[in-house]
Amino acid sequence: MFPNFLPSQVNQLTDPKAIAFIQSIERIALATPLSQHPILTSYIRQGRGETPILLLHGFDSSILEFRLLLPLLATQNETWAVDLLGFGFTQRQKEITYSPTAIKIHLYNFWKTLINRPIILVGASMGGAAAIEFTLTYPQIVESLVLINSLGYTCAPTFSKYLFPPFDFFAVEYLHQRHILALNLGTILASFNPKILLAIQCAMLHQEMPGWYDAMISYVKTGGYSDLANRIVQVDKPTLILWGEADGMLPPEDAEKFQQSIANSQLIKLKNCGHAPQLEQPQITSQHIFQFLNNRNF
Fold first, then answer.
1. If you ran DSSP here, which 8-state letter would residue 83 be given?
2. What span, in angstroms and rounded, lies between the C-alpha atoms of 290 and 53?
3. For 76-111, how does the pLDDT look when each residue is reduced to its tens digit (9 = 90+)?
4. Boundaries of every domain in the chain
5. Which CATH number fits the domain 8-155+223-294, given the four candidates 3.20.80.10, 2.60.130.10, 3.40.50.1820, 3.40.980.10?
6. DSSP labels for 221-269?
7. Which residues are CB-neighbours of 277 under 8 A, at least 6 positions away?
8. Residues 239-255: pLDDT tens digits?
9. ω before 33 within 30° of 0 (cis)?
């Protein structure tokens, strides 16, 4: 059975692996200084190992983007994925302002409550920016860093913080309608490639959670991680930079910027791969991560 906090649309999924992954999602009532009430926080944990891996998803996404990568990593390591504050299937509370700072505080309390050991932090897209911010604030927690087509140099447009009603609603509604259009097209194309339909269904499932609109508006208005670029050079952890060469969202020169700024880093470019290697090339991505973990003094 699916966890009862998931939206009813989850019952439309037919892929056995996706279903098994979603059925393993757990929730914890997490105490944080952000609210008087615990935040119901969704996560997945699989595997065993000495140094846990913690996966952070991208903007307007969820732990489902790791449904292919996490089981592979869990064959050799204890591996976690968490829905960041304001995203995925983690509870959205009206009194919270959803910002990078709030995301960091929530993530720290999640780590402290459930893991409480040094970790290997893996961030994809916006999750990469969140991973960098977390590493700079809590360097004693993070042993190594993996950035997958990470935000940091290219972030939200500056106008986003000045959105006001009703334009803030329209901006977020655009995200929702874009997914609906893709789902309708995916239904037509599914007869050729069922993976298309599954990917779209998983990508928009969290948008049916209570408070999605308000949390997205709150986060977009903060400008996201727009002030991070000048601090990336401060990262001193062994860092693997994985970059899909066919990324249509971020400029290719961002990959070199990360490598040049982070002293102890290695850049690997993935051919025939776009913005989401964790979904497009999970086997290759996991192999590169394992190689990195076995040889971090490059």
1. P
2. 11
3. 999 999 999 999 999 999 999 999 999 999 999 999
4. 8-155+223-294
5. 3.40.50.1820
6. HHTTTTT-GGGGGG--S-EEEEEETT-SSS-THHHHHHHHHSTTEEEEE
7. 124, 148, 149, 242, 244, 270, 284, 285
8. 999 999 999 889 999 99
9. no
